[in-house]
Amino acid sequence: MLFTKASEYALLSLMFIAQKDKPQDVDTISNELNISKSFLAKILQHMAREGILCSYKGANGGFHLAKKPNEINLKDIIEGAEKRPTAVFECSNSRDDCPSEKGEFCKIWSMFNVLQVKVDEFLETITLGDIISQKSLK
Q1: CA distance linking residue 119 with residue 1, whole number of Å
Q2: Which has more confidence, 49 or 134?
Q3: Which tens digits make up the pLDDT trace of 44-101?
Q4: What's the rounded Cα separation, in Å, for the pair 66 and 68?
Q5: Residues sharing a CB contact under 8 Å with residue 77, sequence separation 6 or more, in sequence order
Q6: Which residue of 78, 81, 116, 130 is 20 to 30 Å from 88, comparing CA positions?
Q7: Which terms in the Gene Ontology molecular function aspect does this entry carry (predicted)?
Q8: Which residue, among 122, 130, 136, 98, has the nearest Cα to 11 in the 3D structure?
Q9: Residue 29 CB contacts under 8 Å (≥ 6 apart), including other chains
Q10: Biggest CA pair distance of the chain
């Protein structure tokens, strides 16, 4: 699984927005976090489409969390930013969809699938609220 700059910037932006009382515009967030405005705008729009952020237009517009920080998990943030599932390996989700058409004979798929389930479960347990409060993870 690859966490790109999009994931990093999404998380940093959400942390910044969560700590504000009013919607934050892209210019403010971009300047405060030293992130490219155009790249950040795309990320935040994806977050709004995923229901993580609310977007407001106009002079007092900007972005605000659509949910409480403890209701937004890391898996949702990453998938929203990356626009794809949090894949540990580049393979199909089932043996039946194997691109090499040898899924029924594959010896590694089941091992990687177990790992994928564990990673997904772990990412679902970490919330934006946990990260903001620096809750220790066990």
Answers
A1: 10
A2: 49
A3: 999 999 999 999 988 788 999 999 999 999 999 999 998 887 777 766 666 566 656 5
A4: 7
A5: 7, 10, 11, 14, 47, 52, 128
A6: 130
A7: DNA-binding transcription factor activity
A8: 130
A9: 13, 16, 17, 35, 40, 44, 63
A10: 60
